[in-house]
Amino acid sequence: MVGVARWFMLVAVVSALGGMVWGIQMSASQDHLLSPAHGHLNLLGWVSCSIYAFYYHLLPAAAGGVLPRLHLTTALLALVLLVPGIPLAIQERGETMAQAGSVAALLSMLLFAAVVLRHRPERAVFARRKGH
């Protein structure tokens, strides 16, 4: 994995590790108040970013240009704003970060949709070659 795909996978792995540690901490303390933020870290960080990584890895032509880098930037921005923003909103210390993170997450998915719509594989990614 190289380029944007590798960066998405690195973000995914770091998010998974953070989500696991956070989940263990919540379980040990019996305090699940911030579980919505934990869930968003796992869903946007681990799941979405790993899907993005595999997409860009399997379709390397889609990983070139400005759009995929902008996609990576907005996905990271969404994580950085939304995951800490949710606890702030839960604790009634302001919703601005969570709202901005939500908008960044939506923009990230819209950018990914644009990438997917612009790039179609010339052949099936897992197609067998003749003789194999």
UniProtKB/TrEMBL annotation:
Give the domain of life: Bacteria
Q: Which UniProt keywords apply?
A: Membrane, Transmembrane, Transmembrane helix
Instruction: Note whether Transmembrane helix occurs among the keywords.
Output: yes
Entries under SUPFAM superfamilies matching the protein: Cytochrome c oxidase subunit I-like (SSF81442)
**Parts of the chain that traverse the membrane:** 7-28, 40-58, 70-90, 96-117
Q: What is this protein called?
A: Uncharacterized protein
Its lineage opens with: Bacteria, Pseudomonadati, Pseudomonadota, Alphaproteobacteria, Rhodobacterales
